[in-house]
Amino acid sequence: MDKLTMGDRIREARKHKGFTQEQVAELLDISVESVSHIERGTRLPSMQVFVKLIEVLNVSADYLLRDSISTGRLFGDNALGSKIEQLSPKERIALEALVDTYLQHHI
Q1: 50, 70, 71: which is closest to 61 by C-alpha?
Q2: Are residue 24 and residue 48 in the same domain, yes or no?
Q3: Shared-domain flag, residues 66 and 84
Q4: Domain count, the chain
Q5: Tell me: the pLDDT tens digits for 6-32?
Q6: What's the whole-model pTM score?
Q7: Reduced to 3 states, what is the DSSP secondary structure of residue 39?
Q8: 26 and 7 share a domain?
Q9: What is the pLDDT of residue 69?
Q10: Is residue 66 located within the same domain as residue 47?
Q11: At 87, phi and psi to the nearest 5?
Q12: Are the C-beta atoms of 10 and 38 separated by less than 8 Å?
């Protein structure tokens, strides 16, 4: 398992959600130092923290572990998911805002 890649993905997902390390630490009931170590790839999260990370950041386990398994996808195996996966983090944030706006006016 590549700790650096996992840490990068966790950092990306945290920023995508607009959370600070302090907020994530509080939600996970761990220290900010621990969050920093996990994001830098110097430490792996415990299984309990890993599960909480998935819930807090709203990502799949296979997304965080993708270098260790060959079938991982963040958005599922469909045409839209494939297109979304090609977007940059900034583009994903813009798309999410666009979808939120659409849903507020059409539901």
Answers
A1: 50
A2: yes
A3: no
A4: 2
A5: 999 999 999 989 999 999 999 999 999
A6: 0.63
A7: helix
A8: yes
A9: 47
A10: yes
A11: -75, 150
A12: yes
Crossing angle, helix 21-28 and helix 47-57, to 10 degrees? 120
CB atoms under 10 Å from CB of 68, counted, come to 12
Residue with tokens 């995508």: 16
Q: How many angstroms separate the CA atoms of 103 and 100, rounded?
A: 5
* 9 and 52 share one domain: yes
Say if CB 76 and CB 63 are below 8 A apart: no
Domain with 28 in it: 1-74
Locate 13 and state its tokens: 């997902």
Question: What is the rounded distance in angstroms from the CA atom of residue 34 to the CA atom of residue 1?
Answer: 18
Q: pLDDT tens-digit profile of 40-76?
A: 999 999 999 999 999 999 888 888 887 654 444 455 4
- Take residue 90 and report the two structure tokens written for it: 């900034």
- Contact residues for 68 (Cβ-Cβ < 8 A; gap 6+): 1, 2
Which tokens in the block code for residue 83? 């297109």
d(CA 21, CA 16): 12
The total of other beta-carbon atoms located within 10 Å of residue 18's CB is: 8
